[in-house]
Amino acid sequence: MGLLERDRVAPATAERFSVVVVGGGQAGLSVGYHLARRGISFVILDSAPRTGDSWRRRWDSLRLFTPSHLDGLDGMPFPAPAGTFPTKDEMADYLESYAQRFALPVRHGATVRALRHADGHYRLETDDAVYEAGQVVVAMSNYQKPFIPGFARELAPDILQMHAGDYRDPAQLRDGPVLVAGAGNSGAEIAIELAKTHKVLLAGRDVGEVPFRVTSFWGRHVMSRLVLRFVFHRILTTATPMGRKRRAAARGGPPLVRTRSVDLSAAGVERVPPVSGVRNGKLLLQDGRMPDAANVIWCTGFKPDFSWIDLPVFSEQGSPLHQRGVVSAQPGLYFVGLHFLYAMSSTMIHGVGRDAGYVADVIARSMTKR
């Protein structure tokens, strides 16, 4: 009988570092950049085979929602004309180039199966290695596992369904209507793409939209800086009453950035209420309708998966307990990349560097005290 994932036996001999960074995406690379500048010994463990793969796996036509002048990490601007919107593959290649330029020690294919604390240090186990460190930075977002409602399994077997994380292009779908469940940014953009070849229903609540067209000259060069760089980065933080209020209310997701309601209408996308369940093998909407759909794409987001962290650092809801990424109840443990870790911009490319720098400073100060 094979061993369960959590019961796999890793080698007993551990490799030692001052800091282990878990996650090789934009957050992990940002932490690595700031640790390297401070001369601290570290390693970055990335479960992906290649830096940037989390972007390469997204749907083919995806472009970033922010213009290129806001898409660079600390120390390396994004190599594209200001005001353009990079493709997901361009972003992936940028992250790979970033790691190479700063010689960041990324180890690929290293999925951490367990993180524990014993004998005064942290112990991290992967499938084929063990690492020990005085300090650990979990550089991962809240969005790790695709979320699909449990009632999805009750859909009739002749209905093709997939999560947005598995969607690549319209050729994957069957002939017939498509219901896109979830009307956030991903759902809206996928709906518009599919409307060229299918009848599309977009189910979900109205999340609102930014009060300017981000693709216009004004939006790309003026409002994007004002809203994303100033409001999201400086005003909406945990240090301000407005920011704390927004953080408490931000669980529903951000407003539409590039796509607008008029764009959905112009594309022929039909807006319908959110999905509430399944009846007789068909999706049931909140208004009682059961639309015919040959395809369902679940744009219902992702959920966190910190089950591998065997430490008492989570709330009853499963969220990490921290203050600006620093876990006071577990000295030497940090988080970077979480939703609204410090500001509305914390999960955005232009905002993660500040959080990474702050955590790196805390780590550096703690090492000088020893």
Give structural attributes.
370 residues; alpha/beta; disordered N terminus; 20% strand; FAD/NAD(P)-binding domain
Structural commentary:
The chain folds into two domains: about 5-145 and about 305-370, FAD/NAD(P)-binding domain, CATH 3.50.50.60; about 150-210 and about 255-300, FAD/NAD(P)-binding domain. The chain has eight helices and 16 strands. It has helices spanning about 25-35, 55, 90-100, 185-195, 215-235, 240-250, 260-265, 350-370, and strands at about 15-20, 40-45, 105-110, 115-120, 120-125, 130-140, 145, 160-165, 180, 200-205, 270, 275-280, 280-285, 295-300, 300-305, 335. Strands 1, 2, 3, 4, 5, 6 and 16 form a seven-stranded mixed β-sheet that branches. It has a five-stranded parallel β-sheet with strand order 8-14-9-10-11, covered by helices on one side. A two-stranded antiparallel sheet has the order 7-15. Strand 5 (about 120-125) and strand 6 form a beta hairpin. The protein is globular. Residues about 1-5 have low confidence and may be disordered.
CATH superfamily of the largest domain: FAD/NAD(P)-binding domain
Number of strands: 16
| Shape call | globular
Structural class: alpha/beta
CATH structural class of the largest domain:
Alpha Beta
Terminus-to-terminus distance = 46 Å
Number of helices: 8
- Integer tally of domains: 2
- What is the name of the CATH topology of the largest domain? FAD/NAD(P)-binding domain
Compressed to H and E, one letter per element, the order equals EHEHHEEEEEEEHEHHHEEEEEEH
The CATH architecture of the largest domain can be given as 3-Layer(bba) Sandwich
In what range is the share of β-strand residues? Answer: 15-25%
